[in-house]
Amino acid sequence: MIGVMTQPRQEASGVHRAIDAVWRLESPRIIAGVARLVNDLGLAEELAQDALVAALEQWPGSGVPDNPGAWLMAVAKRRAIDAIRRERRLERKIAELGHGLETGAPGTDPEEALDPERIEDDLLRLVFTACHPVLPAPARVALTLRMLGGLTTGEIARAFLTSEATVAQRIVRAKRTLARANVPFEVPAGAERAARLASVLEVIYLIFNEGYAATAGDEWVRADLCREALRLGRVLAGLMPGEAEVHGLVALMEIQASRARARIDPSGEPVPLAEQDRGRWDRLLIHRGFASLLRARALGGPPGPYVLQAAIAACHARAATAEDTDWKQIAGLYELLARTAPSPVVELNRAVAVGMAFGPERGLAIIDALAGEPALRNYHLLPSVRGDLLARLGRTAEAAAEFARAAALTRNAPERRLLRRRADELAARSG
């Protein structure tokens, strides 16, 4: 009797796993396709979720369709037509859309439901809508991960160490803001497109950076967020192959992600770049990053911020050892970056490169000029970099104090331990 009861449960469990996998893969396309019809991101997600509920109800009995993505898309579009009809809107469009969708069962016309060109257009619209500058950065990140990543609110909350209620609220508010601002579901043109693309790239890189060096919590690296950002970047590069900065961002993330295995020791503690075992760097990711950087350069024009940052990352990737690093070239690239996209953080990074290329005194001069920057007042890397430069100058007591200050400012536990250890070592040497 136990065996008889277990088999159907196992089969149902397998169907539910299949539904979860299909939803992860297809939900951005389905939401994008439906949003094109209803021009409302919140409603589009609800209708896509309705299709998911229909799959959960029907597939355990009927089996997973041959083309599950097309099945979900067809059901979601059917629900969209019903919603439009209920609201008595877009009646001519109802006639056009309804004719094809109401003549067969879900999934009978997968070619129409999953037309590649139509999907690419819809996905691009979804990217630009979810990352609209009218939304604050945390809302853009949450909405992008929800709509394009297929992550649940719980997964997003865990990734950013916040409550599920907070993430849900951000997403709801983001949808309302987009609706109130009457943001069209489209890819803008001209200057507006360039401005919006910058927002899109910023959101993807914010997600990657949170995975690469977590700002808070007990983990130094969150590989799932790095993978998600890379996936989004690669999708965007496929949708916008003529944009050099898109390829530049992908190159930057690929090369930085290549260091993942070497960035933490067996106990999960951070390993600084200079101390990493470069034999553990992922050569495939490095080669992919180089290829993306070459594609960006082949498009011509002056290099943008992401192309320049990718070029800096490539300098590190080419060096067989830390001592082989071409710091003069990196310092020159940071000089270009400071002119292209000036910011206190860029200047901080330039100070590191200048200090390595031309001596710690030169780097310290740049750091000290940043002391009054409001944006860096509570930024732990400012005293951390200053402490490193002071240590190289032999000013160990001052360096120890800077590392102690950096440790007090960071909210990431492994990084705090690393900085505290460095402070204690320098204090012991100075005493």
Automatic annotation (TrEMBL):
Pfam families: DUF6596 (PF20239), Sigma70_r2 (PF04542), Sigma70_r4_2 (PF08281). Keywords: DNA-binding, Sigma factor, Transcription, Transcription regulation. InterPro entries: DUF6596, RNA_pol_sigma-70_dom, RNA_pol_sigma70_ECF_CS, RNA_pol_sigma70_r2, RNA_pol_sigma70_r4_t2, RNA_pol_sigma_r2, RNA_pol_sigma_r3/r4-like, WH-like_DNA-bd_sf. This is RNA polymerase sigma factor. Residues 27-89 form the RNA polymerase sigma-70 region domain. It comes from Thermomonospora curvata (strain ATCC 19995 / DSM 43183 / JCM 3096 / KCTC 9072 / NBRC 15933 / NCIMB 10081 / Henssen B9). Belongs to the sigma-70 factor family. ECF subfamily. Residues 128-178 form the RNA polymerase sigma factor 70 region 4 type domain. GO terms for biological process: DNA-templated transcription initiation; response to stress. One of its GO terms (molecular function) is sigma factor activity. It comes from the Bacteria.
